[in-house]
Amino acid sequence: MTGIELVVFDIAGTIIEDHDEVLSAFRRALAENGIDVGERELKEWKGASKREVIRHFVAKSMAKGQGDAEQIYDHFRGLLEEGYRAKVTPIRGAQASFARLREHRIRIATTTGFYREVRDLILNKAGWADTFHANVCSDDVSAGRPAPYMIFRAMEATAVPDVRRVIAVGDTPLDIQSAHNAGVKSIGVLTGSHGEQRLRREQPDYIVPSIAQLPDLIEREFANRAASGS
């Protein structure tokens, strides 16, 4: 198909629909501990390690009576898991895209700012427990996005050493920043909460409506490079 050997997918907003589960859980967990955060500010942290987000806003806030960061994080986890136990909806065309990539021997992996338990909950409910060659979460690395470490861990787990043969796909600015920091190609999708204008500010290599268009894009844009050896 192409010279691409690995495609790394974000999860929420990229391969499953985003119904505001994450932002809602953040807002509630922080607000109930006296920390008010604007939606716009919180939205910029989408895709980051969830523990790092809580720690950031607790450290930043001077609100009286605010709770301990770990206690707030535990509360956040309970709210988040409740939301995803209720409903997980795959992005339309996701399963077909995964199958097409695998048919052409392109390895696929996930990276996510979720912790391991909620990642596994989502993948199991979506029927994808055995779909990916590797699944990496923020628990597995020393720092989440925009650090490149989750992408590097996915490369290590799938035995793909060349960043020129890797694509990272996501719906947030942090997804694109992480791809740039890793030196891999970045593809933004418009199925999350960030619009095209915001994603373009991060200068992704490509933007597509959803991952349903991804296999065609890869074949069209990278086939010639593979044939020429570039």
Major sheet summary line: 6 strands, parallel
Taking all Cα atoms into account, the compactness measure Rg is 18 Å
Strand percent estimate: 5-15%
What fold name goes in the CATH topology slot of the largest domain?
A: Rossmann fold
What is the rounded distance between the termini? 15 Å
Q: How many domains?
A: 2
Helix/sheet category? alpha/beta
Side by side, the strands of the main sheet go 3-2-1-4-5-6
Mean pLDDT, as a whole number? 91
Task: Name the descriptors.
10 helices, DNA polymerase, domain 1, 230 residues, 46% helix, six-stranded parallel beta sheet, alpha/beta, Rossmann fold, 2 domains
Provide a short characterization of the protein structure:
By secondary structure, the protein is of the alpha/beta class. The protein is built from ten helices and six strands; from the N terminus they run βαααααβαβαβαβαβα. The longest helix has 18 residues, at 69-86.
Could you please describe the fold and organization of this structure?
With 230 residues, this protein is an alpha/beta fold. Helices cover 46% and strands 12% of the residues. Strands 3-2-1-4-5-6 form a six-stranded parallel sheet. The chain is globular, with a radius of gyration of 18 Å.
